[in-house]
Design brief:
There is one protein chain. The protein is mainly alpha-helical. 65% of the residues lie in helices and 7% in strands. The chain has four helices and two strands. The chain has a two-stranded antiparallel sheet. Strand 1 and strand 2 (13-15) form a beta hairpin. Helix 1 (16-31) runs antiparallel to helix 2 (36-51), helix 1 packs across helix 4 and helix 2 crosses helix 4 (74-91). The radius of gyration is 13 Å and the shape is globular. The two termini are 14 Å apart. The relative contact order is 0.22.
Length: 92
């Protein structure tokens, strides 16, 4: 089970690609404001993964919490998703 993702205390699992996506978003965000287009593309990818039911339970919760605001850009969605996934992984 460890190969599939990180297990948190409440027995929910963060899939490894969710953690990698969150780390990539964080890294590109820290590097430059010029990466906003790429981060927005990752936000669209996160939305598609949610719609295709690929995300873990924690990933779905992070997406739903990230997309609560109206007129939310894909960049903001990606940043919020990243912060929530990284926060959940630190609790593990």
């Amino acid at each position: 089970m460890a190969a599939l993702g990180i297990t948190t205390q409440d027995s929910k699992v963060i899939k490894s690609f969710e953690l990698e996506t969150a780390n990539t978003i964080r890294r590109y965000r820290l590097e430059s404001q010029g990466n906003s287009g790429f981060i927005g593309s990752l936000g669209l990818l996160i939305k598609k993964m949610y719609e295709d039911d690929v995300l873990s339970v924690i990933g779905k919760e992070a997406y739903e919490n990230s997309s609560n605001e109206k007129n939310l850009s894909y960049e903001s969605l990606a940043i919020n998703f990243s912060e929530l996934i990284l926060k959940a992984s630190r609790k593990a």
